[in-house]
Known about the structure:
Radius of gyration: 25 Å
Strand order of the largest sheet: 10-13-14-9-8-15-16
Oligomer: single chain
Largest sheet: 7 strands, mixed
Number of strands: 18
Helix content: 40-55%
Amino acid sequence: MKATFNSLKTAYKSTPFPSFLERKARLEQLKKLVLENELSIIESIDKDFSGRAEFETQLAEIYPSVKAIKHAQKNLSSWMKPEKRGMSLWFQPAKAQVIYQPLGIAGIIVPWNYPLYMAIGPLVCALAAGNRVMLKMSEFTPNFSSLFADLISKYFSKDLVSVVNGGPEVGAEFSQLPFDHILFTGSTRVGKMVMKAASENLTSVTLELGGKSPTIIDDGYSIDDAAQKIMFGKLLNAGQTCLAPDYVFLPKGKEQAFINACKKVVQKFYPEWNHDNYSAINSPKQFTRQEELIQDAIDHGGELIYLNNESADKTDGRKMSPALIIQTLENMLVRKEEIFGPILPVVSYDSLDDVIDYVNDNPRPLALYFFSKSQANIDRILTETISGGVTINDVILHVSQETLPFGGVGNSGMGHYHGYDGFKTFSKAKSVFKQSLLAGTSLMYPPYSKFAKSLYKLMRGR
């Protein structure tokens, strides 16, 4: 691994600032990699999950990967242009600008839940910024990780983009390499270890860590509309999404209406919920964890309500029936831990004040979703709570906007990427001051004259 890193470093030194055409060609290669191998990508991910819906891989991985590449290609020229900055009157006619310079070697650590998109998204930003890249793929998607390593070696030279595979030991070694920037997507626990390892080299990090994303239904909003949108976002990839709604705040008295609406939606979406359109839980370990979350909730007095046809089996292999949990308590694991599955706790509330207090008293989430017709209440949620991002009257969709920065805050992460914000994350914003030949700064040189002191008073102002 160290030899691979050194090879990338040597190549970077030979071309520290790739041209626009070089970067655009690299992005084109990346797009070809995805489009020319779409079927094999889908098949490998399906095999890793023991059942991942084909269209979900297309919708949530292939499409956003290609969209991110096209967005970067379209805007790269303007991103690379030096930014002119204003100049104080007293330093004119000097000029100031910011140029965005490649950091060098970027390290990207990829999770298992969206193994293609979580590799391509950061890779697009790193390549657009002119960097060379190493990626550590997840050991929990062995088929795709192996395929991706092969594809990268086919479409890119090994001193431009390189992939390493392996378990925790490989991940630990990877994090200790002296990268110029590391982007990690995964759990808060592992994110802390990555950050600690990176600190030994003073390597900057972007951490995308997830967390418990609250979904709030305001009084007066259509329960049927909210249920449809929430269930789509929650059950995409069987809930194995860092941005999935993690619990729902519901006005008191609307519980049964919400249960009925969710059942109707789920049975419409998945009339045969264990069919190919519904994805499986990634691994036996993750499946067991879902069962433990459910059992803990039941043990603490929660009521489990399955949303599929009640005559259907509750599980099929690693496919888990979608379910709501009502009568939840704060000490339940489903209220304390990120769920990452098709289970959705419901929390009844009396007032929006109570909801805002609860959100603010808990770790800051990666996302927050608010369904409301009241602009005043929307403004309150936006200004009185802090989260990585917000979608109003829907869920998840803010992540699909390349023009918006994506990232967490506090326990849900640090830093941003996507689009121009990702380009800047993988770049050094270098300040450049260009002095004019007509500069008057010599008037302030020592020995300090009366004129210099008078000029200072004028510059300082009152």
